[in-house]
Structure formats: structure tokens, C-alpha cells
Write a structure and sequence with these properties.
Layout (H helix, E strand, L loop, with lengths): L2 H9 L5 E5 L25 H9 L7 E5 L28 H12 L7 H13 L18 H10 L4 H6 L37
Parallel strand pairs: 1-2
Helix pairs in contact: 1-2, 3-5
Length: about 200
């Protein structure tokens, strides 16, 4: 991808289009020339090329552009200034309300009384992943993402009891396998849905 190619692609998109540019921090980290230590090397989108494509003279109108990043602190202030980026949304750990909504979306028809959901929520509280209804949390450093939760529900599609029994798989892996343990390929999906780091609040 080059500056000219990006500008061309954004100029020919239809009106009223949503555009997603993922990992905006990955292509470059500074305005300096891009080398191995400052981003990708070779034909690539430059910082000025991205700015021009987003809102330069030849930029397309009537479209919404979404930028994603895992490291917002690496983005240049000129890229995320007001007027260029109108809204910033942090997708962090899943909340109690979101968990209940996802459960209802996947298992609402199978668990109309909410009995299995109550057991699932209780398990997540016990593991310290979710706060209680009073807003209390047993372990402040523990959490999971909506993507991990969705992965668990998809794995147990049509099986709410399976989601309850595998709730511990949302816990992040905190230690290496003990000596003599089976190889990773034969282990149950104990960490398939984890891997989300809780954001540090300062």
C-alpha cells in the first residue's frame, strides 16, 4: 500500500460508506522516515499521505472513517486532533450489563427464565471477572473482553450449560504448564477465550 494507492481507493468509494482502517499505529510511529525501528520499510503509507487521504483537498466526502489501534499513545496528535477524529471510543473490559445482553442474544430463547444466566453471572463474580450487582469486585486485576465472551458463547452455541461449565476459560493464563503436563495440542480450550489485558487506570 502506498500513498497514491490509499488516496485512490478512498476517492472511489461510494457515498455513505463506512471505511475501517485497522491498526493505525502499525504502519508508522513517527513522522520521520520509516525504517525498521520506526515502522515498516519499503513501499508504504506515510504519515502525510494518510492525513491527505483522510481530509486533504482530494479526499472523498459523505463517508465515515474508523481507525483502530491497540496503542493510542503512539498516534501522532495531528492524526487524532479534533476535526480530524471527531470521537474516540475505548473498547475495554466487558461490563455486567454487556455480559447479560450477550447472554440474552445467544441463549434468550433457551433460558427464558434466566436461571442458567444467573448461575453464569455468579460464576464470573466468583472468578473476579465481573463486579457484583452492588458494584463490588473480588479481584480488581481480573477482567475479560466482549470478544472473548462472544467466543465462549459461539463455542457453546445452543448450549448454555456448556458456557457455564467453561466459564473459567475466560480467566487469563497466568503460569506455564507444569512438568509432565500434556502438550498444548491435547489440552482443553482452557485459554482459548482469554488473552485480554485489563487496562491500567491512572
Amino acid at each position: 500500500m502506498t500513498d497514491d494507492r490509499l488516496s485512490y481507493l478512498l476517492s472511489i468509494i461510494p457515498q455513505r460508506t463506512l471505511v475501517l482502517l485497522e491498526d493505525a499505529d502499525a504502519a508508522f510511529s513517527t513522522r520521520r522516515s520509516q525504517t525498521d525501528s520506526h515502522g515498516y520499510q519499503g513501499a508504504n503509507v506515510t504519515f502525510s499521505g494518510l492525513l491527505n487521504a483522510l481530509d486533504g483537498v482530494a479526499s472523498a466526502q459523505e463517508r465515515m472513517v474508523f481507525l483502530t489501534t491497540n496503542y493510542i499513545e503512539r498516534l501522532d496528535p495531528a492524526l487524532v486532533r479534533p476535526g480530524r477524529v471527531d470521537m474516540t471510543v475505548k473498547l475495554s473490559e466487558v461490563t455486567r450489563w454487556q455480559t447479560q445482553g450477550l447472554w440474552d442474544r445467544f441463549y434468550g430463547e433457551l433460558d427464558q427464565q434466566g436461571i442458567v444466566k444467573a448461575r453464569f453471572m455468579e460464576r464470573l463474580e466468583q472468578f473476579g471477572i465481573l463486579e457484583s450487582e452492588r458494584g463490588e469486585k473480588k479481584q480488581l486485576g481480573r477482567c475479560t473482553s466482549a470478544a472473548a465472551l462472544q467466543g465462549l458463547f459461539l463455542y457453546n452455541k445452543g448450549n448454555p450449560e456448556g458456557a457455564v461449565s467453561m466459564a473459567q476459560d475466560l480467566l487469563p493464563a497466568t503460569h506455564a504448564p507444569a512438568a509432565g503436563s500434556p502438550p498444548a495440542s491435547s489440552l482443553a480450550a482452557a485459554s482459548s477465550f482469554s488473552g485480554f489485558s485489563c487496562p491500567t487506570l491512572v
